[in-house]
Amino acid sequence: MKKSFWIYTFIGVGVAYSLASSFQTRLTVHPYATWMAGASMMTWVLYAWDKRCAELRVLLGNWRVPELTLHLMALLGGFPGAWVARSMFNHKLNVKRHPEIVTILAASTILHLLLTVRLVLGPPIQLWPPANWLNF
To answer: Cβ atoms within 10 A of the Cβ of 125, count?
Structure first.
């Protein structure tokens, strides 16, 4: 693993957590909603930074955000920000060069949609045993 992966991942998750915490103190919504908002904003910022570094590769070539960090942020709840950033910046839209991005974003969207339905309609989530995770 490159050092940049750890740096950008810690920055991404840390700032997303800070944003979610600050939203949670001011809003009366479920903590999952504030986490999704914070993670989406931070994922959007990481996509924007990566696009800027790609455009200015002579100046900022070594500061690119690793794709694994972008995928991890999308899986952790930043998939709305990733969808928006991809369309806004036309970034990583070449499916032949980046086929895993569409798969990761679709899988994370479905995963978080199932979790949202579970949180809204079901009883409180019991983390153990895993057989209870999808029981309604």
So the answer is: 12
pTM of the model: 0.78
Q: Which residues form the domain of 72?
A: 3-132
89 vs 91: CA distance, rounded Å: 5
Both tokens of residue 4? 């940049």
Domain count within the chain: 1
52-97, pLDDT tens digit by residue? 888 887 776 678 888 889 889 988 888 899 889 988 988 777 767 7
DSSP 105-128: HHHHHHHHHHHHHHHHHSSPPP-S
CA distances (Å), 7 to each of 51, 57, 64, 120, in order? 18, 19, 11, 35
Amino acid letter at 100?
A: E
Nearest partner of 65 among 1, 15, 16, 9, judged by Cα: 9
Buried b (16+ CB within 10 A) or exposed e, 52-82: ebeeeeeeeeeebbbeebbbbbbbbbbbbbb
Q: How far apart are CA 57 and CA 19, in angstroms?
A: 30
